[in-house]
């Protein structure tokens, strides 16, 4: 275990003053040098270092953060900015800073998922106000601006035109002061934080992709907070140290509708019929997961209430059809899920070649359609608190995360309609019509909904247990 945690953990600048530092073991290493325009943004959010104009409450409704209020006028939304905020480098948070960050996100390639299908412009309309305008009326602009990928950073973060460097550039209670590649990161308390003084002096983060090693770190006392304890390890830990939370995260089998055997809807239907998801829930997840009835799970209780019947295409015999099945090692359960699916599909008559790699080495191939089938653990409301963004990203013809290579006019229409509907019951009904349209294509087979298992050592208080994976260490986190 000493190989997983760097020497000197807990000896950052703030520790020298006698402050308490917390040691965090996280699952996935940075993929893009902690650029907020990538999925690394959620690490910055979970460390309370980078902040957004808006955050979401427990119900997924927007509430103030760096913006204190907002109002809508057709396609435009005007946000009033919070006074008394400074960046970690001492520069002032103002309208120009917001414009700079949001404009950079709007022209990024690839775009942050939250902006898929959205044309967004932003301008300063005063020292403390900015106006965000979209090409089409968008009822979810405040929700979109809550995405960690739209964090507001100081000018220094953008000095290199090709990358965004968040070190020392956030506004949160903790300042990112050092990053050691894909192995570790160090954060110190920022005493100039607008929301008050954090209880901890700092955070020492170590990236530990191996789930067994993360669990061992909690058991041995090497870590105070452990992200994503594997199901296989949970039973071996003191049950008082783990918390299980239903996640808006679905383990789904994506089927390539563009090339290979699964171009044919009948073979996709045959694959769906072959899958025994209950065996996965019981055998792999040891009943610490929920059987999927659709793409959206129990973390969104309204989904089950509004879900209707889906008509699936008729299955045709596989007759030995050869398929490649891919997944990744970063989530400890997925390789075992892949092995069981291989057995189930081969029993149904498919010939299955299995390929398993680390996520960083397999994502590009999956997005390029290199696999006939791909197993993905996917957050369904990670970005906006609203599942339309996930559905559009993964299943719309223009979606940037369309592993299934799906191009279906009915799906596109349903998702466009849902996206244009104001938030509330009507929008939720539209979401479920979109889900039904996707399921009817059998481009994706939802298998189970995960629960996150987080480990907190004895004496740790004030750690967030967030289903959306946006919060972890907060201003109130402390060590006894």
Give an account of the 3D structure.
This protein has 480 residues and is α+β, with helices and mostly antiparallel strands. The protein folds into three domains: 1-49 and 172-224 and 457-480, Periplasmic binding protein-like II (D-Maltodextrin-Binding Protein, domain 2), CATH 3.40.190.10; 50-158, Dipeptide-binding Protein, Domain 1 (Dipeptide-binding Protein, domain 1); 246-451, Roll (Dipeptide-binding Protein, domain 3), CATH 3.10.105. The chain contains 13 helices and 19 strands. It has helices at residues 41-46, 95-106, 141-144, 211-220, 231-234, 265-274, 277-283, 301-306, 333-348, 359-367, 387-395, 409-420, 425-441; strands spanning 21-26, 54-56, 62-64, 67-73, 76-81, 120-126, 129-134, 174-180, 184-189, 202-207, 225-226, 242-255, 289-291, 322-328, 351-357, 373-379, 444-456, 460-461, 478-479. Strands 1, 8, 9, 10, 11, 12, 13, 14, 15, 16 and 17 form an eleven-stranded mixed beta sheet that branches. Strands 4-5-7-6 form a four-stranded antiparallel beta sheet, covered by helices on one side. A two-stranded antiparallel ribbon has the order 2-3. The longest helix is centred in the last third of the chain and has 17 residues, at 425-441. The chain starts with 20 loop residues before the first strand and ends with a strand. The model is unreliable at 6-18 (pLDDT under 50).
């Amino acid at each position: 275990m000493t190989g997983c945690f760097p020497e000197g953990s807990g000896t950052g600048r703030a520790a020298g003053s006698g402050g308490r530092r917390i040691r965090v073991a996280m699952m996935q290493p940075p993929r893009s040098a902690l650029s907020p325009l990538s999925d690394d943004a959620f690490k910055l959010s979970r460390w309370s270092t980078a902040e957004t104009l808006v955050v979401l409450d427990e119900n997924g409704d927007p509430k103030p953060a760096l913006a204190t209020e907002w109002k809508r006028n057709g396609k435009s939304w005007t946000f009033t900015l919070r006074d008394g905020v400074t960046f970690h480098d001492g520069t002032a948070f103002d309208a120009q800073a917001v414009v700079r960050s949001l404009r950079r996100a709007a022209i990024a390639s690839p775009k942050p998922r939250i902006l898929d299908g959205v044309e967004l412009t932003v301008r300063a309309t005063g020292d403390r106000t900015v106006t965000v305008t979209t090409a089409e009326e968008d009822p979810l602009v405040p929700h979109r601006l809550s995405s960690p990928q739209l964090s507001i950073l100081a000018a220094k973060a953008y000095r290199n035109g090709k990358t965004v460097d968040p070190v020392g550039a956030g506004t949160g209670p903790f300042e990112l002061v050092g990053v050691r590649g894909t192995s570790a990161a160090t954060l110190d308390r920022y005493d100039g934080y607008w929301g008050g003084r954090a209880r901890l002096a700092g955070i020492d983060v170590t990236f530990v992709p191996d789930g067994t090693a993360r669990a061992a770190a909690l058991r041995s006392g090497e870590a105070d907070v452990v992200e994503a304890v594997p199901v296989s390890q949970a039973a071996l830990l003191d049950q008082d140290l783990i918390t299980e939370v239903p996640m808006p995260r679905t383990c789904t089998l994506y089927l390539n509708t563009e090339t290979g055997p699964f171009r044919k809807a009948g073979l996709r239907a045959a694959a769906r019929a072959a899958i025994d998801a209950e065996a996965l829930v019981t055998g792999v997840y040891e009943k610490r997961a929920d059987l999927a009835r659709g793409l959206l799970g129990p973390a969104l209780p309204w989904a089950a209430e509004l879900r209707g019947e889906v008509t699936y295409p008729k299955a045709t015999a596989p007759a030995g059809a050869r398929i490649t099945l891919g997944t990744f090692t970063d989530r400890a359960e997925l390789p075992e899920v892949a092995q069981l699916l291989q057995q189930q599909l081969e029993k149904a008559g498919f010939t299955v070649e299995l390929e398993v790699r680390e996520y960083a080495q397999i994502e590009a191939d999956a997005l390029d359609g290199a696999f006939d089938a791909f197993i993905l653990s996917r957050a369904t409301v990670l970005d906006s608190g609203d599942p339309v963004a996930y559905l559009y990203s993964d299943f719309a013809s223009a979606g940037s995360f369309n592993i299934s290579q799906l191009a279906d006019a009915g799906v596109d229409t349903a998702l466009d309609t849902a996206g244009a509907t104001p938030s509330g019951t009507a929008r939720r009904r539209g979401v479920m019509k979109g889900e039904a349209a996707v399921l009817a294509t059998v481009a994706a087979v939802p298998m189970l909904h995960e629960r996150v298992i987080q480990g907190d050592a004895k004496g740790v208080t004030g750690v967030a247990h967030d289903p959306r994976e946006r919060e972890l260490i907060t201003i109130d986190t402390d060590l006894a």
